[in-house]
Amino acid sequence: xxxxxxxxxxxxxxxxxxxxxxxxxxxxxxxxxxxxxxxxxxxxxxxxxxxxxxxxxxxxxxxxxxxxxxxxxxxxxxxxxxxxxxxxxxxxxxxxxxxxxxxxxxxxxxxxxxxxxxxxxxxxxxxxxxxxxxxxxxxxxxxxxxxxxxxxxxxxxxxxxxxxxxxxxxxxxxxxxxxxxxxxxxxxxxxxxxxxxxxxxxxxxxxxxxxxxxxxxxxxxxxxxxxxxxxxxxxxxxxxxxxxxxxxxxxxxxxxxxxxxxxxxxxxxxxxxxxxxxxxxxxxxxxxxxxxxxxxxxxxxxxxxxxxxxxxxxxxxxxxxxxxxxxxxxxxxxxxxxxxxxxxxxxxxxxxxxxxxxxxxxxxxxxxxxxxxxxxxxxxxxxxxxxxxxxxxxxxxxxxxxxxxxxxxxxxxxxxxxxxxxxxx
Length: 425
Hints:
425 residues; single chain; four-stranded mixed β-sheet
């Protein structure tokens, strides 16, 4: 098992290139089974969730080949419509393959992904979309889910909540369906925009991404192409939060400025100076942040894009633990996102949690401690808190962090943070 050791109380300075988007690349990888050629991705993050998805793609018949951070997926052979049960248990995002397999083979079989440490994440909206497109959906007592259709047919799909995963699955199922599909109540996240851009480059007929209404006109065939995975806005936000808590001056290259306006507003509100980085051609190519004083206390609520992302709530909880004054955070997406509060309390944070709200009584300094990563983003939040804390912090169960960050220790060391992996037997 891996642990992370952090020596805190020093400002962060320097420049890093941000990894490719975890939340963006997973549905793109699922889309690869919709074409019968080779799809090549560049800037792919080499993280546990991606490696797991590649393993699932190979199990259903794809041939995958790595070349550094480039990944080629040959889906020209026979594709099988059933996802192995053992793989579903490793990664909830395997559910995203259902829409693509249904579009490619007319049949998709998976299993209920089970509980999630950050809250309830039902798949009912995914299955609703398949039903609206003409699939017969069934689930047995053991949690086996099957969707099948001789032919998918375009229809109106309405989501009462803008679920990112359900929107992605609806898109993946609709692009090869006969006729027109309209998705109302669609999620507006940048990852949806990236997926639509990829599908359009593969030959799909899609418009409206970035709004709550997306229209898809089904086509007969999709083709292979080359696509560059955009920078990860959550990883960028995590490192910006680390600097906001510990102080310093950093440049995050490939940080998606355009899609982080709410995060930038919040960082400015707590006292950071944040500006875009421009390339020689004048294009925005990253984010620069300066933080000289303790953060200011604020009130914050998470929400679907363009609101403040729930994935950055835990890192902001760490930052606000050092703020001057009393902050309030309301979690409006996942009901169990405050598990990290208990670990931050071990470091001296004064946090009161009541339901989906937390009050944070800012402390001048946190203290190093032995803490446990309860989930992916909570683990990253503990690393951010440790960088601002006095003394040494040991973070256990870091396998959660490896699911979404290519190498959090490498990146923070590039910013002159004192952090390293410690291998435990």
